[in-house]
Amino acid sequence: MPHVQDTTTALPEPEPAFYRLADVVRITALSRSSIYRRIAAGEFPPQVSLGGRATGWRREALKAWISDPSGFRPLTTCEVQRTSSGAHVRHVSLASGQPAAHARTK
Description:
The chain is an alpha+beta fold. It has three helices and six strands.
């Protein structure tokens, strides 16, 4: 019987655009509570909404944190203010101080 070579090659899987919490815990070796504590302190990238109740972390933000955890600074800052009608308004600015967006919250 002649020897037949396998011509199929395994293609590398593309990296996901977003990572879920279980992936972030595995990648960073931080506990769930440590991740959320660091997010609150501005020392870890915040999660983003993926729709419904799903959230995830952007691949680029995690890579930035992994490359320099102690020097990480979020790309945006967020300040919540209450209007005279009682609504909360979130003011998001870029790290340079320029406004990025305005969004009403509950």
